[in-house]
Design goal:
One of its GO terms (cellular component) is mitochondrial matrix. The protein has 6 helices and no strands. By secondary structure, the chain is mainly alpha-helical. The mean pLDDT is about 85.
């Protein structure tokens, strides 16, 4: 007997909540520092856009759906084996940001680089301990 796909109807008013929860579930697949930072960022962004005008909310949800799809693909077996998580910005994307957004992006980049350095140092320390 063939299995049938179950289609769930989602109340459009609940879609942002469903998307939010899906993103947080996907973050379980990220390294712990990235997960904590990502969860905090998602939580903050969704709170800030809770009362956004309809046009802005549609753009907001569309961008987060794209993020959700991209992260879902990257966290599959093949994506993880490549070790690539995230996406580089195009120069045209950066032109759309205001000064505050560029400042936030710079802070995020610096934090991510600090985390990478810390993880590399921890890995080097673990290797040295295992050699002893």
């Amino acid at each position: 007997m063939a299995a049938r796909a179950v289609v769930h109807k989602i109340d459009p008013a609940l879609f942002p909540l469903v998307l939010y929860k899906r993103i947080l579930r996907l973050h379980y697949g990220l390294p712990p520092p990235a997960r904590l930072m990502g969860d905090a960022y998602v939580r903050d962004e969704f709170r800030r856009h809770k009362t956004a005008p309809r046009e802005q909310a549609l753009v907001f949800l569309h961008e987060w759906m794209q993020y959700c799809t991209m992260l879902s693909k990257q966290l599959t077996g093949r994506g993880i084996s490549k070790g690539i998580i995230g996406k580089d910005f195009e120069h045209t994307d950066l032109d759309k940001f205001n000064e505050e957004q560029l400042s936030q992006l710079l802070e995020l980049k610096e934090e991510a680089e600090r985390d990478q350095r810390r993880l590399r140092e921890e890995n080097i320390g673990e290797k040295k301990e295992s050699e002893v």
